[in-house]
Amino acid sequence: MGSNFLSSSHMENYLDLVSKDQMCTGDVERASLFYIISGNDDLYRKRRFIYDPKDHSIKRCLDNTNVDFSSSIKPLLG
After folding, report:
1. Other CB atoms within 10 A of residue 38 CB
2. Measured between alpha carbons, how far is 65 from 36 in angstroms, rounded to an integer?
3. Residue 45 lies in a domain
4. Which of 9, 19, 27, 36 has its CA 20 to 30 A from that of 58?
5. What is the pTM of this model?
6. Cα 42 to Cα 74: distance, rounded to the nearest angstrom
7. CA dist., res. 61 & res. 45, Å (int)
8. Closest to 40 (Cα-Cα) out of 13, 67, 75, 19
9. Does residue 60 belong to any structural domain of this protein?
10. d(C-alpha 4, C-alpha 57), whole Å
11. Residue 50 within a domain
12. Mean pLDDT throughout 13-21?
């Protein structure tokens, strides 16, 4: 496990997001987003509402009434 990851599942989730997005190595902003999403179980479960790997874009997820983000998670996405 890499020293910057919280757990082996955090690292696996991160690598899954990177792989599906086909992220470029030097993309620090996208890497940061994926690190945050993959390190939180609730965010990782809701990743399809947050990010579209086909379009390589962040979705307007806080406006989506089909997904419930807790008050502690909203600041991470806003």
Report:
1. 23
2. 22
3. yes
4. 9
5. 0.83
6. 12
7. 13
8. 13
9. yes
10. 25
11. yes
12. 95
Tell me how many domains the chain contains: 1
The pLDDT of 5-25, averaged and rounded, is 94
Range of the domain at 60: 8-77
Which residue do the tokens 């807790």 mark? 70
* Amino acid, single-letter form, for residue 39: G
Identify whether 1 is part of a domain: no
Tokens 């994926």 -> residue: 34
Which token pair is 45?
């479960």
Q: Could you give the CA distance from residue 21 to residue 9 in angstroms, rounded to a whole number? A: 18
Residue 64 reports pLDDT greater than 90: no
Whether 43 and 49 have beta carbons less than 8 Å apart is answered as no
Give long-range contacts, CB 8 A cutoff, 24+ apart: 13-17. 13/37, 13/38, 13/39, 13/44, 14/38, 14/39, 17/47, 17/51, 17/53
